[in-house]
Amino acid sequence: MAKITISVIKADIGGYVGHSSMHPNILTRAMQILDDQKKKGLLIDFYVTHCGDDLELLLSHNQGENSGEIHKMAWDLFVECTEVAKQLKLYGAGQDLLSDAFAGNVKGMGPGCAEMTFEERESEPIIIFAADKTSPGAWNMPLYKIFADPFNTIGLVIDPKMHDGFTFEVLDIFENKIVKLNSPEDIYDLLCLIGASEHYIIKSVYNKNGEIAAVTSTQKVNLIAGRYVGKDDPVMMVRCQSGLPAVGEVLEPFSLPYMVAGWMRGSHWGPFMPVSVKDAHPTRFDGPPRVIALGFQLSQGTFIGPRDMFADPSYDLARQKANEIANYIRRHGPFEPQRLPLSDMEYTTLPQVLNKLKDRFK
Length: 362
Ligand code: 13P
Ligand code: 13P
Ligand code: MG
Ligand code: MG
What we know:
Elements (H helix, E strand, L loop, with lengths): L3 E8 L12 H17 L4 E7 L2 E8 L6 H20 L24 E7 L5 E9 L7 H9 L6 H4 L7 E7 L4 E7 L3 H8 L5 E8 L4 E5 L4 H5 L9 E5 L7 H5 L7 E4 H4 L1 E4 L1 E2 L15 E10 L2 E7 L7 H15 L19 H8 L5
Parallel strand pairs: 13-14
Antiparallel strand pairs: 1-3, 1-4, 2-3, 5-10, 5-14, 6-7, 6-8, 8-9, 9-10, 11-12, 14-15
Helix pairs in contact: 1-2
The chain binds 1,3-dihydroxyacetonephosphate (2 copies) and magnesium ion (MG) (2 copies).
C-alpha cells in the first residue's frame, strides 16, 4: 500500500467569547471547505475540532509532508474562517495569521503544524492531542514518559518489539538546530535538554527501525512575530500498538496534571487539565490550560472515529487535582512561580512596561 500523510494544521483565528472557545459557525465553515477539497480529490479524509479558541484541521492525503497544495488550502481556509470571525467580531479574529500573503508553507507564518508519513499498518490506531493556553514544550514530559519511562510504559520492559527503545528528535527553538538522542542510551542527556521545555522541544519520536511514532507542532508564534500575539496551543500526533506504546500507555502521562507555561496572557504556569471536547473551554483566569485527545482507527486513510479519550471518569482525579493546583498557584497572583520568569516574559507585553520605568532607575 502507498504511504499516506496525516497533517494536523491549526490556528487561532478568533475566540468566542474572549479566548475561551470557538464559535460553531467557524467549525461549520471549515467542514464545508474541507468537504469540497475531499470531493475534488485533494484529501482522502478530514476531521475538524477545536480546543478552546484553536481550530484544528486533521487531514489525510497522498501529497506528502510540507505539500504546498495542502498548506495553501489550510491557509486559505484560515483566511476564509477569519472572515466569518470578523463578521461576528470574534475576539482576536485572525490572531495567528501573521502575514497577509501566503509564502508556501504555514510553518513560520503563525499556524501550528504536525505531519507524519507512513505505510498504514494492518490496524493503525492514532491519537491526536490538542492543547489550549500553552506552548509546544508541553508535550516534552508526556513524550518522555510514553517512549522512555518504564514506570509509565510497561511495554518497554515486556514487549520484545519495544525493548530496543526509541529515538527522540529535539529542537533547540532559539538556535533552530536539531539533535537526535536515543533512549535508553542517552536518557540523562535527553532529560538535560527537554526538562527546559521552553527552550528544547521534542519534535518527533521514531522507533529504532526509523519508523515514525510521534510528531508535535513546534511553532512558537511570539518568537516568529517578535511580539506577543497569543499562545502557541500546540498539537501532537501519536501512533499506537503493535511495537509502539499501547493506547493506554500513550494516555497515562496525562493522569498527572503537570505544570505547563501559557495560562492567562501567555504569562503564567498552570496545571495541564485533560478534558473531553465538551469541556475544552478554558474560562477560569482564561484556563487552566487544557488538553484533549481524539482517538481514531485509520482505514485506507479514512478516520474511523473519533473516540473522545479523556471523556473517561478515570481522569476525574486528574481534573480535580488540576483544580486544586490552580487554586494554590493562583494565590501567588503576579508573583513567580505563578508568573513566568523574566526570560520567558520577553515576548509578552511586560517589556513595554519595564521600558516605561527605565528613566526612573537612578
Ligand atoms: P499489541 O502489542 O498488540 O499492541 O498489544 C499490547 C496491548 O494492547 C496491551 O494493552
Ligand atoms: P490564546 O493564545 O488561546 O489566544 O490565549 C491568549 C490569552 O491571552 C489568554 O489569556
Ligand atoms: Mg485567542
Ligand atoms: Mg488558544
